[in-house]
Design a protein that fits this description.
Blueprint (H helix, E strand, L loop, with lengths): L4 E8 L7 E3 L18 E10 L7 E8 H5 L3 E6 L10 E5 L14 E10 L8 E10 L4
Parallel strand pairs: 1-8
Antiparallel strand pairs: 2-6, 3-4, 3-7, 5-6, 7-8
Length: about 140
């Protein structure tokens, strides 16, 4: 299993969080996608936690399965628009709408934990990616 990929970003209170963009690949380097029977993604689980909560309470839980739910943010080919990490591109871009982040408080940070499950678990390991989103307060 790959080491977690940690992404840091900042958002303003009351806005949608910045898109979480990454390239998902199997340990052999093959890029994961939706269509491939061996390297396809079957499910994405998301847990969002308040990073300052000592109990690490999960405040948002989502599970995405099937092509219709995964297609908006998992791609069959690498995308390049706005990807600053390298020249290769990304195949995962997720963003919760502002309506789902209304409970995010300014001055706090939240972790987004993604568990990516492949269609063929013997070929594609489960990968966990965490994003650390810091929320800036709009108040004075």
């Amino acid at each position: 299993m790959s080491a977690p990929n940690v992404i840091r970003a900042t958002m303003w209170e009351g806005e949608a969080h910045p898109p979480i963009v990454m390239r998902l690949a199997a340990d052999d380097g093959f890029n994961l996608n939706l269509s491939d029977p061996d390297y396809g993604i079957a499910q994405v689980d998301l847990k969002v936690r308040d990073a300052y909560d000592p109990l690490e309470t999960v405040i948002i839980t989502k599970t995405y399965t099937g092509y219709a739910q995964l297609y908006p943010f998992v791609f069959d080919s690498l995308q390049g628009d706005g990807y600053a990490f390298d020249d290769v591109g990304y195949n995962f871009r997720h963003q919760l709408p502002a309506s789902e982040t209304t409970g995010f408080l300014g001055g706090r940070s939240y972790t987004f934990e993604y568990k990516i499950t492949g269609k063929n678990l013997t070929t594609v390991p489960i990968q966990v990616h965490v994003a650390w989103i810091q929320v800036m307060s709009t108040g004075y």
